[in-house]
């Protein structure tokens, strides 16, 4: 099925001559290898970020957090708005797409469909994310972000902001002064100091340096009666903002600890 | 026109493409063998998929070979050299469309008796249709098809590439190539029937 057109004559001469005149050289092999490695590296880094996001999602759904949320009295709208790790889900999806972009641009990446590349990326993120979660990476990251990240309570962990609402019976903060088992003071940077009243039974478990969240009732300005007290796994450092000189007392072995006054 | 680097070489006409790539990296003059081997094939390929006039095709072809030369170190034996160079020609043709911001309405296709046979058997056409099919009718039908379908038909039936090679040329997974080919066949049959009525 060939046409009978005139072929381009002396094309090879013209091309070879142009190569010589313009001093065109093949791109060096090391540059090609470096570029390929860079693409793989960036794809790998994207998977790593996706894995960090997945480990944070697991952190959101650890047993202690789920149980606390069950006692929060939140309605389904608040559950959707505050409880779910929207930020980390978006972060995960974003980096899965970035990983797909880089793997698609590897030398043979075009041979695999979007579905195959995404499925492998998701699987890698889930496996690596689970390992990172098991190694305590999610907590380290939450502590790091909780300590200094802007919009932590609004975007990264909206659950933290959810607990800063004494008018609706929810209050969180750092225990800075324990007067007795029935009375102590908590502090958070947004709402300042609050006197907490509670029962002897509940208060006995609370110590200075704990970051706690409470469910109860606002009695008067900066006074709150705690009917339930929790040690939240998430957002510990956020509640301690402005009071970092107070050593943190919540330890892994204590969590999740839930105190309920029925 | 200086001819310093285009001196007579040892005869490398029998060398494989991959060997010629290695030889070119040792001496650029050997690139002439690769150009000579592929210039006609690529010229007709670009002509078939683009419909550009010959002068423009020669310009595109020159760009293709310059790009091939610059990227010789990127070629590896995971795919055939022919698929790789067709892929570069494919991309350069698309770049040329973009530069011109338009595509010619008609591409330059010719189908002889052998081509009619290939297409009718490849498209599983019924015997009464394929018996009456002429090269002109096939060309007229192909001209009406979307570019992506026409190109895949050109690669398969005019250039004689298999699905893996087509996948390497258009940089799409083999499954996508197969599904494009199925849709191309359906569209061809539909348009062919419409033209017959």
Task: Give your account of this protein's structure.
The complex is a heterodimer of chains A (262) and B (197). Chain A is an alpha+beta fold and 262 residues long. Helix content of chain A is 49%, strand content 18%. Chain A has eleven helices and seven strands. A five-stranded mixed barrel of chain A has the order 2-3-4-6-5. In chain A, strand 1 (164-165) and strand 2 (170-180) form a beta hairpin. The radius of gyration of chain A is 28 Å and the shape is elongated. With 197 residues, chain B is an all-alpha fold. Helix content of chain B is 69%, strand content 0%. Chain B is built from ten helices and no strands. In chain B, helix 2 (31-50) crosses helix 3. The longest helix of chain B has 23 residues, at 174-196. Chain B is elongated, with a radius of gyration of 18 Å. Mean pLDDT of chain B is 83; it is low at 1-8. The interface between A and B is large, with 33 and 49 residues.
Keywords:
heterodimer; A: 262 residues; alpha+beta; 7 strands; 49% helix; elongated; disordered N terminus; B: 197 residues; mainly alpha; 10 helices; 0% strand
Find the structural class of chain A using helix and strand composition: alpha+beta
Which two chains touch over the largest interface?
A-B, 33 and 49 residues
Q: What share of residues of chain B is helical?
A: 55-70%
Question: How far from one another are the termini of chain B?
Answer: 57 Å
Order of helices and strands of chain B: HHHHHHHHHH
Largest sheet of chain A: 5 strands, mixed, barrel
Q: Average pLDDT of chain B, to the nearest integer? A: 83
